Amino acid sequence: MISTKIYPGEFDDETGLARVEHVPGQNPNEQGLSRAGIMNACDAALRRLQMDHIDLYQTHRPDFGIPTDETLRAFDELVRAGKVRYIGCSTYPAWGVMEALMVSELKGYVRFSSEQAPYNLLDRRIENELIPLCRKHGLGILAWAPLGMGVLAGRYSDPENYPEGSRAELLGKYYARRVTERAVKVGVEFGKLAADAGITPAQLAILWCKDQSGITAPLIGPRRFEHVDELVAVQEMTLDPEIAAACDALVPPGSAVSDFHNTSGWMKTQLTW
Asked: Model pTM?
């Protein structure tokens, strides 16, 4: 399956992702989630991918400067033209997903089929509203950062000193803020649960995410080929109820010890621990 996303205000010519370049002074209709921006990004993605269609075309973030109606109408045109099979959104607030569903229903546009949201044992806040919403209205949920940026995989032992080559070291302050003292403590205890279960912490993190209610699939981004085999093996595993309960004791349902929404523009208050 080919999946690509529109990144309002960003550009990456090295990947197969459809991003819309933001140039100061550029016509607003040629960037972000405007009709022209979406159409141009889709055509550019198809050229890079050398494909005639995209299976799942997603927005990466909501674009509150563009009417939802305009965005969805553009998606609808792409689906009717055969360039896109399904559409989805990513890192939307629950009310944003609901608004989009309402507009699609009222106007007869294609509707979102999925939401790609941050979800792991360290930040379970989508369980409060987003997951129930998606379950009720039939949207799949693709969970990004299921390893908690490596914290749940045992990558960090000290919230002040990052391992060389880690995401906290490489990706900058917004990402480093997720490696909190409480998160690292949970990561250590989580590693003990994985050892008791006879699997790696990374496998347990993916397994926990995979088997949560409403989750369609966790998204993985392994750096080495051996990690692929390690993580793909999880699809044949089932989360033990006792381990699930132990995980709930570490971070209760609906709560968080790290902020994986901290790069979301709609989240006005950034949580700190």
From this structure: 0.87
